[in-house]
Amino acid sequence: MALIDEVKQVCxxxxxxxxxxxxxxxxxxxxxxxxxxxxxxxxxAINRQIAGFEDFAFEGKRAIEAGNPSRSLLFxxxxxxxxxxxxxxxxxxxxxxxxIENFVxxxxxxxxxxxxxxxxxQMLAITVFASEYRPASETVQRQHADMCFSRTGVARVxxxxxLYNGKLRGFLPTVEGDLKETFRVLPARYSxxxxxxxxxxxxxxxxxxxxxxxxxxxxxxxxHKLFNGTECIRGFDLQVALNAHHVNxxxxxxxxxxxxxxxxxxxxxxxxxxxxxxxxxxxxDSDFSTxxxxxxxxxxxxxxxxxxxxLLTFKVPPNSPILSSSLxxxxxxxxxxxxEYVHARHKILPNGQQENLNDKKNVEAVVRAGGYNAQHYxxxxxxxxxxxxxxxxxxxxxxxxxxYSLVSAxxxxxxxxxxxxxxxxxxxxxxxxRQNLWEVPPETLSDNRFAPNLQLENVDFRAxxxxxxxxxxxxxxxxxxxxxxxxxxxxxxxxxxxxxxGVFAPGWDVSFDRTNQVEHLASYGLGSPFPEDSKLCAxxxxxxxxxxxxxxRTFQPNPMWPTVSPLTDPEIGQVGNLPWDGIVGPRRVxxxxxxxxxxxxxxxxxxxxxxxQKKFSLSLTAKVDVRxxxxxxxxxxxxxxxxxxxxxxxxxxxVFSFQTxxxxxxxxxxxxxxxxxxxxxxxxxxxxxxxxxTFLDPGNSRKRLVKIEETVTLFVTAVNILLxxxxxxxxxxxx
Length: 735
Fold this sequence. Notes:
The protein is an alpha+beta fold and 735 residues long. 17% of the residues lie in helices and 24% in strands. Among the domains are: 107 residues, no CATH class; 102 residues, no CATH class; 186 residues, no CATH class.
C-alpha cells in the first residue's frame, strides 16, 4: 500500500472524532478528495492562538513539510501532547503517528545523492535513535515544538502490560484501581535514521544542555528516517529491521568480584548468572509503532534465583564491607565492575530452610561477619544495543551505529523529570537557597559524556563515542522565530535520558565502569537486585531526585541525610495504608511515661522482602507532578531557613509529619486567628523536631525509638509561614 493511502486511512478515522473540525480552523481539510495535494499546499491561515498550536514552528506553512516534522502542521497536531480538546473524542495511536511521520520523510523521497549533499559529503551511517516529539519548552533550542533524538533510550521494568494514553501521547505507569505493587512496563521507541557525525553546534542541532567541550565532541545527527518500501529513498526498495540484544549479568559480576563466593566458571557463564532472555522485546501489537521496545512483564519485580533445580546461593565472605545491612562490593578507582550492593539478609540453612536475618537484633554484624550462604535474587533490568539492519543500503552506507538501550528500575515520580528539577534549581530557585538545596543535585543522564557499555559482546560500541546519551535535534539553518514557552509540562513517562538519573555513586538507571582506561556506562554496577539501590538511595535525602522518593523521614534521623523533598503522611503510610515502599512511617509512642518517636529501623528494613510481598505502591507518588515536587522542596528549604537551621545542622532535625491541609483545618484557623493572618494558595503543615538519643526497641529489634528534644509545628505557603514551638503561641514569618 502506498504511503498516501495509509495516511488517508488515518485521516478518515480521525476526521469523524473531531480532528477534521479542529484542522479546518487552520485551513486544512483532512477529508479532501486529493489529500496529498491538500497536505503539501501552503496554508495561509494557520491559527497559532488555538490551544496546543502556540508553539508550532512559525516557519511551518504546510500540513506536511518534506523531511521536517516540526514544520508539518498535521504531524504537530497529532503528536503534540498539548493539542487536546473536549471536541476530540479519540486520539491517534502510535502506529498512526508513525504513518504520518513516515509520510513527512516520504512525501518527497530524496535520492542518495540528495542525502550526500545534505550531509555536506561527510560519511553517512545508519544510526538508531530513540525519539520524542516535544513541546517547545522541552526541546533542544526551546524555540518551537520539535523532535528530540538520543542514541540512548530508557525503558522501565514492571509487572503489567504497557498502557498507551493517546491524549497524553505517552505511556502510563499505573494500573487503575490496583493499589499495591502493579507497575506497568514503560517502553522506549526507536527508529533508524541516516545520520552524519558533527561537532556540537547548539544553533544547528544541539545538544540539549550544551556542556563545556561539546563544541569539540562528535555527535551523531539524524538527517533522514528509514522505513520500509520504495518511498523512503528514491531508487531503493528498503526493508528495515531493528534487532534488540540485552543482558543482565549482575550475579556473574558478583562472583567475578568476590572470588570465593561458591561459584566459578563455567557455571557463572550460564543463566541466571548472566541472561539475555526475558528482559525486553520489540512489540508486534498493531496499535504500536514498529520500533517500540517493551520490557518483558514478570509477576514480581524481583524473584529468588534458582540454578540446576535448586535455590541459588552465594557464600557471604568473612569480614565483609557493608552499607547498612547490605553487602558492599567496593569500586576500583570509582569504577563499578560489579553491583555496589548485594542483598545478603536471607540465609539458607543446610536443610534448605530460610532464616530471615532481618529478625536478628545484630543483623549488620551478622552480614559483616559473613561465612553463610545467602539467597541470590534476580531482577529483570539490563542494558544492551538496538541495531538497524537494512541490506539494501549495506553497500551505499556500510557504517552501522547502534543505540544504547537501558531497561531500568521503576521511576517512582513518573510525572517529574530530572531535567525539569535541574533547570528549576538553576533558573528559578532564589540564590539564598540554591547552594544548599540538594544533598545531591538532580543531574541527568543526558548531561553525562561517557561511552556506552564497552563490555557488551558483538556490538560495535566504540571507546571514543562519548556522546551516546546526549539529546539532539534535526540540523537546521537560518534564523527561527521564538514561539511561546508557556505550555503545560508533559506528564507522560519520558524515555529519553534527560528524564533519567546520571551515574554518580553509582546511579539509579545506570552505573559506570572502566575498560582499558576508558570510562563507560554499564548497568551491572547497580544493586543486586535493584531494590537494594532503592532503599539506600531513597533514605539518603532523595539521592536521585525525581526517581527515588526521599525516605529520610521514614527511618530514624541521620545527621548526614536530612529531609530535602518530604513525602506526605499518606505517601509513607502514616495515614492510610499505601506507603510507597511498604514501610509504615513513624508514630508517637509512650514508654515509661516518656513520649518517643517509633521508626522502622533502617538496617532491618528490607525492600527486597517488601517487593517479594508486593508491598510497593505507585498510586500516590505517581500523582506528584513537577510543580508539586518543586513546591515541596522549596517549602522544606524555607522551613529550615525560617528556623535558623544552617545547612550543616539540618540533620539535627527530623520531619515527623508533612501533609497538605485545607483552609477549614481547625488548627490552621487557630494559627491564623492568633497571628491575624490569612494564608492563601497551597498550604503545607510540617511537624519537625530536634531529636535526642536513639536506640533499638527492646521488645522489637525491627523498630527504633528516638527521643524528642524540641518540636515545631508550621503552616507553610509560598509567601508566609506560621509557626509554633512546642505548646507555645503561633507567630508569623515571611518567606
